[in-house]
Amino acid sequence: MYYKGNFTKNKKQGYGIEKGKDYIFEGNFENDKKEGIGKIEYLNSKEIYKGIFTNNFLTGKGEYAWANGDSYYGEFLDGKMHGTGEYKWADGGKYIGEYTNNIKEGKGKFFWTNGRIYEGEFDKGKPHGKGVVTQSEKVYQVEFENGKLISRAFLRDSTQKENELNKYQLEKAITD
């Protein structure tokens, strides 16, 4: 391992660059640990994280980029996507919403590359519960169970100007 930076009482402290066998970290150290703002590049996988570190872990807001073109910007906890964030796939799909331990969990919005959008609840990474799907200028109230569509009802044409009734129907569809 190689380190270039400040030391206090033989411990890494302040700004520094650390090169390990399969990574390069550039950022802040506190009491010999990655702490605060930093950037780590994993040399074998070509993955990069820029953001907040706490006690050597990706914890706080940050951005992670994979070699395949996928990326995530949002909150991390102990090295995992946790909290709110936006995941973008290289093919153009994306998810904006809540994560728990790297899994879509809670409220979110999923955008398929074909233009379809689902907004609603997620459980264990899959749509689950009531929500709204917009597809081909049509808006539907839907219900999923473990990722499988179990009901769908037409709400409105998305090109229509949204009136109070439609707004009420959409809000009710999401909260019911």
Features:
single chain, 176 residues, mainly beta, 2 domains, elongated
Average residue-wise pLDDT: 92
3D shape:
elongated
The CATH superfamily name of the largest domain is Histone H3 K4-specific methyltransferase SET7/9 N-terminal domain
The largest sheet, given as strand count, sense and whether it forms a barrel, is: 14 strands, antiparallel
Strand content: over 45%
CATH class division of the largest domain: Mainly Beta
Secondary structure: helix percent: under 10%
Please tell me the total number of domains: 2
Distance between the termini: 55 Å
Per DSSP, the total helix count is: 1
Q: Structural class, from secondary structure content?
A: mainly beta
Total strands: the figure is 14
- Assigned CATH architecture of the largest domain: Single Sheet
Name the strands of the widest sheet in spatial order.
Answer: 1-2-3-4-5-6-7-8-9-10-11-12-13-14
Element order, helices and strands? EEEEEEEEEEEEEEH
User: What is the radius of gyration computed over CA atoms, rounded to a whole number of angstroms?
Assistant: 21 Å
Overview of this structure, please?
Helices cover 7% and strands 67% of the residues. The chain is mainly β. It folds into two domains: 1-90, Histone H3 K4-specific methyltransferase SET7/9 N-terminal domain, CATH 2.20.110; 108-176, no CATH class. The protein has a 14-stranded antiparallel beta sheet with strand order 1-2-3-4-5-6-7-8-9-10-11-12-13-14, covered by helices on one side. The longest helix is centred in the C-terminal third of the chain and has 12 residues, at 164-175. The radius of gyration is 21 Å and the shape is elongated.
